[in-house]
User: What shape does this take?
Amino acid sequence: AGTFREAERLLADFNIRTVIGGTAASITVVGPRGPVHSSDFSVTVPASVKSAVLETQAGNLIASDLAGELNGQTRAGRIELDRLGAAASVRTGGGEVHVGRVAGGVRCYSGGGNIRAEAVGNDSWFETAGGDIQIGDGSGPIHAMTAGGNIKVDRCSADVFARTGAGVIDVRQAGGLVTADNSSGAIQIESARGVRCESSAGAIRLRNVGDGAMEATTAMGNILAELLSGTRIRDSLLSTNAGDITVFLASNIPVTVQARNETPGGRRGIISEFPEIRIRLAGFDGSMPLFAEGALNGGGPVLRISASGGTIYLRRHK
Assistant: This one.
């Protein structure tokens, strides 16, 4: 509206209903029929409110500085949350979701927009039908799922569960187990206490995985794993049907290596920089699988490596 009088006239076309009963209050705003006007509706409540429910047909939802729980829904708008003291559950039919700092767990769903969260607590779930998901910091388990986008988690003090139909899964630091499933794309884990990774078509890179098992399989792609000094792993498996597997091992890690290469023809190979690991053919026939086995530093958990479409490299970590 260009003038105050014009604003009053437009406001008179809105139907605003307020219901107060007991410890609850409800405010319903119904806009006029006809041409759509752009309008904002702002509500200020005490920060100590135990719970708030927000719903709009097509507009954006913005909520901040609440101590209680929040539930929000919009058919197509953007959602923004920040400085919330309890759990939040929000849903949008297709807009983006931006989450600042939320002390409780968060549940977010978007029909196709990106989801970004700075810091969340407890058990949090993020799902979008086609956008990217980016999480800065999580103090509880994180579940991230997208039908076709990238997933990035900078820090999480607990377990991480990530699944995408097409994109890159990138977890920088996790205090628990990382479970990653990618239908078409790469998986990168920089630090975790155990990993379970599976990709139908993409490379897998693992680094600084300790106090847990490494389970990484890809139907088509290379695998790179780095076991740094001081790393303690459990029995593990690295497997690819079409690609190379490269493992960098620190010189002081106690581990037993069992490698098998079934690549057809003369292209199969196992290259090792460790004299303790002996390489041999399974039989006299040159088409038989190639094996390598040995114990480093007295042996330890078993690291099984399987390739059927590339070369296996066992390198010293420098």
In short: Residues 50-316 form one domain. The chain is about 5% helix and 50% strand.
